[in-house]
Design a protein that fits this description.
With about 325 residues, the chain is an alpha/beta fold. Helix content is about 40%, strand content about 20%. Strands 1, 2, 3, 4, 5, 6, 7, 8, 9 and 10 form a ten-stranded mixed β-sheet that branches.
Amino acid sequence: MKKIVVFASLLGALLALTGCNDKKNYILATGGTSGTYYPFGGAIANIWNTKIANMNVTAQATGASAENLRLISKGDAEFATVQNDVMDYAYRGSDMFAGQKLPNLASIGTLYPEVVQIAASKSSGIKSIGDLHGKRVSVGDAGSGVEFNAKQILEGYGITFDDIKKNNLSFKESAEGLQNGTLDACFITAGVPNAALQELAFTAGLVLIPVTGAEADSICNKYSFYTKTVIPAGTYKGTDIDTEALAIKATLAVSASLDESTVYEMTKALFENLDELGSAHAKGKEVSAKAAVTGISVPFHPGAAKYFKEIGVLD
């Protein structure tokens, strides 16, 4: 009898240990530790780890969107926070991914907007996109997502980079250029408000240039990853009216090879705990299931689509 009890105890311990080993381990690729993607990804991972049994998701610091998509494609990560336009380029093998089409990508949903903000110095006299002809304009770092945003929006107004005096500068350098008079305008794709533009508004002032009307419609129709948005009056010192703009969206990408039931469970857990996400990170307050199905140009993962159809936000 004693031997049976000992054997049963050992078997129970072995089964308990095996149960621990059944925990699913996943990587959520994010961005640099000083940016938004890393802490925001950590907040998402925490929801999954606490709301779903036997799951361990690690938010991993990375070089952000382009690197994250390559990590998913290679099988080195299952999930990632990325810009939806960069994901579109990778899925189709275009623009910065020309000739490098990445397989195995799917969408869970978009998260929050990153607005294409077009700022001009007060002294430049620029009030519209058309006024950028012949002006000194920074379009972000060479080869960056911002540069492609600038190219696409200018194209919607019949303007090419050959029509402007193009500069490739960082956000900080762009704002400094407007302040010291070496630039007339700049494109900055970022969450609102942007720190570089806030500083510029306080020191020298700025003018926000709208993207609106038929041109905005045309750009959105051609590039389905854009969504319309508004930069509220007062976002920057001296801006006293709302400014219509276009935005790309931070997006939750997933490996297309992950099984439907797992992705369904994770999508459900995330979007049914948005209050917790908003408490953990300010950007979480901008996330909603209804908005998550907008700005998507890369197919939904079947698991995510199943959840969104269940709650009536996806046909």
